[in-house]
Write a structure and sequence with these properties.
52% of the residues lie in helices and 26% in strands. It is an alpha+beta fold. It folds into two domains: 66 residues, no CATH class; 92 residues, Alpha-Beta Plaits. The chain has a three-stranded mixed sheet with strand order 3-4-5, covered by helices on one side. Helix 5 links the parallel strand 4 and strand 5. The longest helix is centred in the N-terminal third of the chain and has 25 residues. It starts with a helix and ends in a 5-residue tail after the last strand.
């Protein structure tokens, strides 16, 4: 789930909390019944409530789709032949890139974020590195290893790789 979806989810959750509090207060008879019936009676014919309802329905559907992971970018088609289609999942690629990155001496605690696009893959590697390791050389080795291995295994071009080292300290065994 991306940042825009998380913002929408936060606002939607806040709105649902307000609705839950109002329903609870109504059920405890905090508001007179006349206030509730007057409000419900004002809804028919009022287009503002219709627009609000449609927006809430669309937001609900978007959050459901994002939560279930149905959105595009979760897999990539490798081939479409007479015997059928071959897909590879985003998570499989990310896990494999993490393994490839950790094969390089001095790199550990790797987390990978991959963006699958029609033209290829863009990758962000977050890792820790041990002290005394030459960062430019090691980064180049990681990039070459990932690009060559992914291309050889899947046929997918790795368009860009960003490597971020979040810690420089000895690996704890």
């Amino acid at each position: 789930m991306g940042i825009p979806d998380r913002i929408i989810l936060t606002l939607y959750t806040f709105l649902m909390a307000v609705v839950a509090v109002l329903v609870t207060l109504c059920s405890l008879d905090v508001f007179p019944q006349r206030v509730i019936t007057d409000f419900i009676g004002s809804i028919p014919g009022n287009w503002i409530y219709a627009v609000g309802g449609v927006i809430m329905l669309l937001v609900s559907i978007r959050l459901l789709v994002a939560g279930l992971g149905i959105t595009s970018g979760n897999s990539m088609e490798l081939s479409d032949g007479p015997s059928g289609k071959i897909h590879i999942g985003k998570r499989a690629i990310e896990d494999y890139i993490a393994v490839l990155s950790q094969e390089i001496y001095g790199i550990y605690n790797v987390k990978v974020i991959a963006k699958l696009e029609d033209e290829g893959i863009n990758v962000r590697i977050n890792a820790s590195i041990e002290p005394g390791i030459n960062i430019p050389e090691t980064t180049g080795e990681v990039k070459n290893n990932v690009k060559e291995s992914i291309k050889k295994m899947t046929g997918i071009e790795v368009r860009g790789i960003e490597v971020y080292f979040k810690q420089i300290k000895a690996k704890e065994e």
